[in-house]
Amino acid sequence: MDSTFKQYKKNEIIYHMEDIPQAIGIVKEGSVVIETVDFLGNVSLLSHIGFNQMFAESYALTKTPMYVYVRAVEDCTIQFLDVQALEKSPELKDQMIQILSNKNKMLSQHIFHISNKTIRNKVLSYLSFMKLETQNSTFKIPFDRQQMADYLNVERSALSKELSKMKSEGLIDYHKNTFTVYSI
């Protein structure tokens, strides 16, 4: 399989909106985020991509321009797989179908969180999902506060206010990106 490795610095853009990627990215060190920026400069964080996770596969396979940016959250190393080489391997195609199915599930979950009307319900949806996903009432999320606000499509100050209320009501506890859910 034809692949190359490239290193990126924190906040460096890996793919720009409107790029037509020729390769699928796999995070080998660090992490990246998929985000979009509207014409007013408002950022919406769509997903966080960590170790051994792929990005840009839908765009690369369909040879269409990206509607999003891919940005390094920290210094990272990315492996790029040439799409033409991928198309020649039936085994890799099967793996790609599984990966795309999992991504579809993840994006559906994101839509479920942000479709809630109140900030509290968005937070409850996300934290409930994380508790279920980790099978633990204490877990780390992959976001800082600004990224969490962007992911849930809310203002950071409003998110912080709601988290403080939920903490004072005894529903949750948190320190930085570690949360404990008491009664959700």
Describe it:
It contains six helices and eleven strands. By secondary structure, it is of the alpha+beta class. It folds into two domains: 3-89, Jelly Rolls, CATH 2.60.120.10; 119-181, Arc Repressor Mutant, subunit A (Orthogonal Bundle). The relative contact order is 0.15. The mean pLDDT is 91. Keywords: DNA-binding, Transcription, Transcription regulation. InterPro entries: cNMP-bd_dom, cNMP-bd_dom_sf, HTH_CRP, RmlC-like_jellyroll, WH_DNA-bd_sf.
Descriptive labels:
four-stranded antiparallel beta sheet; 2 domains; 184 residues; alpha+beta; Jelly Rolls; Arc Repressor Mutant, subunit A; 11 strands; elongated; single chain
Class of secondary structure makeup: alpha+beta
Assembly category? single chain
Could you name the CATH class of the largest domain?
Mainly Beta
The main sheet orders its strands as 1-8-3-6
Q: Based on the coordinates given, report the CATH architecture of the largest domain.
A: Sandwich
The gist of it:
With 184 residues, the protein is α+β, with helices and mostly antiparallel strands.
Q: What is the secondary structure topology, with strand pairs?
A:
Elements: E1 3-8, E2 13-15, E3 23-29, E4 32-37, E5 43-49, E6 54-55, H1 57-62, E7 69-72, E8 76-82, H2 83-86, H3 90-114, H4 119-134, E9 138-140, H5 145-152, H6 156-168, E10 172-175, E11 178-181
Antiparallel strand pairs: 1-8, 2-7, 3-6, 3-8, 4-5, 4-7, 9-11, 10-11
Helix pairs in contact: 3-4
